[in-house]
Specification:
The chain contains 2 helices and 8 strands; from the N terminus they run αββαββββββ. The protein is mostly beta strands. The chain has a single domain, classed as Porin, CATH 2.40.160.20. An 8-stranded antiparallel β-barrel has the order 1-2-3-4-5-6-7-8. It starts with a helix and ends with a strand.
Length: 194
């Protein structure tokens, strides 16, 4: 089975699991938990790559068997879906388009104004970058990072985060040198059920 098919299958399985209705969970802990729009700046020393992304994130909590023990300790583990687009430049101008179907976000939220979190995900993308030995325009993108959310109201927050992203074609085509990029991001996050 190709890696992209495995990624898509895992993403669909996580979506089905996260969207499974539960009668035991309180109403505020079911359904869409987070909607976010994020932008910022990414850079890589290799090839002087600079990226300005725009992400949209949709997040849901996991089923009760996972959610309830975490919630007792004010922890929220969310599965998210994140489509994105980015303008890219190095010696050329290009565009990137991608989707992260397998994303996880863990935060500590006891109702305080500043909420710390860690985030990670993997997905597929198209990049117009050339000349960096990426092996072609279709790549896999994986990232990890951390940040804080500063709540402006009970349900609206500004987020500040750092991400490290690695892209490569998973050895499907040579050359496959890959590319690592660091991002500094700012976003506006809505929590309709907080």
């Amino acid at each position: 089975m190709h890696l992209s098919l495995r990624v898509a299958t895992c993403g669909l399985a996580l979506a089905a699991l996260a969207l499974t209705p539960s009668t035991a969970r309180a109403g505020e802990r079911s359904g869409l938990q987070e909607l976010a729009i994020t932008t910022g700046y990414g850079f890589s020393d290799r090839g002087n790559v600079q990226i300005v992304p725009l992400y949209a994130r949709f997040a849901w909590l996991f089923p009760d068997v996972i959610d309830e023990p975490l919630a007792r300790n004010n922890l929220n583990l969310k599965w998210f879906l994140e489509p994105w687009i980015a303008g890219v430049t190095n010696h050329q101008n290009a565009i990137e388009v991608g989707i992260t179907p397998i994303g996880l976000k863990l935060d500590y939220d006891a109702g305080q104004q500043v909420v710390p979190f860690v985030i990670a995900g993997t997905g597929a993308m198209y990049t117009g970058l050339q000349g960096l030995q990426l092996g072609g325009p279709f790549e896999f993108a994986s990232f990890g990072g951390a940040g804080i959310e500063l709540f402006l109201t009970d349900t609206l927050a500004m987020s500040f985060q750092w991400r490290w992203r690695h892209i490569s074609n998973a050895g499907l085509k040579d050359p496959n040198r890959g590319l690592d990029t660091q991002f500094v991001l700012i976003g506006l996050d809505s929590y309709p059920r907080r």
